[in-house]
Design a protein that fits this description.
The complex is a heterodimer. Chain A is built from 19 helices and no strands. Chain A is an all-alpha fold. Chain A is globular and about 85 Å long. The N terminus of chain B is likely disordered. The chains are: A mainly alpha, B mainly alpha.
Chain lengths: ~400, ~180
């Protein structure tokens, strides 16, 4: 029997176990007189759950005390509170990471670094066998994620490898390793290792599905779609994302993100009439949720699709508002990209008078931000357009291409 | 973090606008359930899971119990499962798969490999064997031990361990043939 054949047989056996367990939990076929689990096992489990609950409570209070003021003080404060290193503290620190990640990635990194340090100091003899390995691996994994979030992908990959080694010392960590694989997929995606990343995300999704975590399965598939999309395989990404549209595990915001991605793919494929309803829906719903940046991204694609679908008049107010809002958020490349779409729409509707002012504003924004050198090519086309007093479509297109190249470098 | 924020992808080479991604690949959620809930689940799910693992994977009861126990401990430590029964069952089965996916002894013959294929997962196939032979077969094919190691564990000579297993395999072969008629 080959390894693969044995694996297939074992997979069948696992499916049979789960079916029988589900049936038994529904009250079908529960055998009478099943001997109970050993009292030692019960005691060990009870001791761990009670201990973790107590540790979590203490750690939550400790985190409230420590994580205030400048992040540079946090580690020192923790060191001053000797004897507080527990698995619960690691868990609570990782829990707090989420609150900081978007607003202050550097603070989030300070927290995950503390979590790794605490996890390293845990005594494995203090907890039942898989506990310390699991919590240590989790800390390394989340630290990798935060480090990668800040663009330090090589360092993040090293942390992923360390987390893999730690999980490898514990026999029941397939779920944690699948989550680690998903983090690795996100990192590899940024390193242009798309196929590897897509395969990892897909495999992780299969594990989540087997383990009854459908929301994470959906997330893994969305990430797989993003990986192949970023690699230029738009049709493949569209197929992946469309397969999730009716998934019951999608929450409201997940469904909006998915709609944006589907609309984006349709727009890229030139199917603008199909993309527009998706994108309108996203804009309205993201507005309701107060997710401004995401709404602007959807609006930008919507404006582009409206222009391409021959509806430039409808696009102009949308693009104008999107460009202004991106500028207010300081998102320079996005502002410039949308401004160019706006110029195209204005030219398509015979309104060239406003174009030079828009060109001058884009140039001024890049100059103020100290990025004029990096955007030299794009800005030279815009200067030429501005000097002519009207923007020729070819110049606008060349500027757009140069800006997109710049965006890819940033 | 689910749904709370959005991480956006970095620009692809030609991507004008970023795709949107979920952003909950960090952060450990608190223990999925309180101590009482976990204990109640253990009392209810534990025995039936142990039984089904024994039946489906042909794994001795004490080993199956250890697998279930470990799966529950991991469940308490894990980071956000949603379906406890599926999660714990799959984790325990993962351990059971590893039990069987150990490499066969390097010196295993083709006959041994073929027989293993026929008796794998079949608890009944091993049941008629005398206890020492059953144990020897398990040590050989489940634990991947050499004849010398089996001899040490059974407190017999290596030569006798080899004979014990050969006899067990002959008996299994006879039963297979009878069942095939």
């Amino acid at each position: 029997m080959t390894h693969e054949e044995r694996e297939a047989l074992l997979q069948d056996a696992a499916s049979a176990v789960k079916q029988q367990v589900r049936a038994a939990l529904r009250g079908e076929g529960t055998p009478e007189g099943e001997p109970p689990m050993s009292p030692e096992g019960m005691a060990s489990l009870a001791a761990l759950t009670i201990r973790l609950a107590a540790e979590d409570d203490q750690a939550a209070a400790l985190c409230d005390e420590i994580l205030v003021g400048p992040p540079a003080w946090w580690a020192q404060r923790l060191r001053q509170r000797g004897g507080t290193a527990t698995a619960g503290l690691v868990r609570q620190l990782l829990e707090r990471t989420r609150r900081w990640l978007e607003s202050s990635p550097a603070s989030a990194e300070a927290i995950t670094a503390m979590a790794v340090s605490v996890a390293e100091s845990l005594d494995p003899g203090e907890y039942p066998p898989p506990a310390v390995a699991i919590v240590y691996g989790q800390a390394l994994r989340d630290h990798a994620y935060v480090v990668s979030f800040q663009g330090r992908h090589a360092e993040a990959l090293e942390l992923v490898a360390r987390a893999g080694q730690v999980f490898g010392t514990a026999p029941v960590t397939m779920y944690e390793r699948a989550r680690l694989d998903l983090v690795k997929a996100l990192i590899l995606r940024n390193l242009d290792r798309a196929e590897e990343a897509a395969a990892l995300a897909r495999a992780a999704g299969e594990v989540f599905l087997r383990m009854g975590d459908r929301p994470r399965f959906v997330n893994a598939r969305i990430i797989e779609g993003a990986v192949v999309y970023a690699a230029g395989a738009v049709e493949r990404a569209l197929a992946i994302w469309r397969s999730l549209e009716e998934d019951p595990a999608l929450d409201e915001i997940g469904a909006i993100r998915l709609a944006h991605n589907v609309g984006l793919c349709l727009a890229d494929l030139g199917q603008h009439d199909a993309a527009i309803p998706y994108l309108y829906r996203c804009v309205v719903q993201l507005e309701l949720f107060g997710m401004t940046t995401e709404r602007l991204r959807s609006q930008a694609v919507l404006g582009r699709s409206l222009v391409a679908a021959g509806k430039p008049r409808e696009a102009i107010p949308i693009l104008r508002e999107t460009s202004r809002a991106f500028a207010e958020l300081g998102m320079l490349v996005e502002t410039a990209t949308v401004s160019l779409e706006l110029i195209e729409a204005l030219l398509a509707t015979n309104q060239p008078d406003a174009v030079p002012a828009i060109c001058r504003e884009v140039i001024a924004q890049f100059t103020r931000a100290g990025m004029a050198t990096r955007a030299t090519a794009a800005l030279s086309y815009l200067r030429e357009a501005s000097a002519l007093g009207e923007a020729a479509p070819k110049l606008v297109q060349k500027a757009g291409a140069a800006l997109r190249r710049l965006a890819a470098e940033l | 973090m689910t749904g709370a924020h959005n991480r956006v992808a970095s620009f692809g080479p030609d991507a004008k606008i970023r795709s949107m991604l979920p952003n909950d690949e960090s952060g450990v959620r608190p223990a999925p359930a309180g101590a009482e809930r976990v204990e109640s689940l253990y009392r209810k799910l534990g025995p039936m899971l142990r039984r089904t693992i024994v039946a489906s994977f042909a794994i001795p009861q004490d080993e199956a119990e250890a697998m279930v126990q470990e799966a529950f401990l991991a469940y308490v430590m894990t980071s956000g499962p949603v379906n406890a029964a599926d999660w714990i069952s799959e984790t325990a089965c993962g351990k059971a798969r590893k039990y069987w996916l150990r490499e066969l002894p390097a010196d295993a013959s083709d006959e041994e490999r073929r027989l293993l294929q026929e008796v794998i997962f079949n608890q009944d196939a091993l049941a008629p064997l005398p206890p020492p032979a059953r144990k020897a077969v398990r040590l050989r094919y489940h634990a991947g031990k050499t004849f010398a190691e089996i001899a040490l564990e059974l407190k017999v000579t290596p030569c006798y361990a080899r004979k014990l297993i050969a006899h067990a395999l002959r008996r299994l072969r006879t039963r297979q043939n009878e069942a095939g008629r």
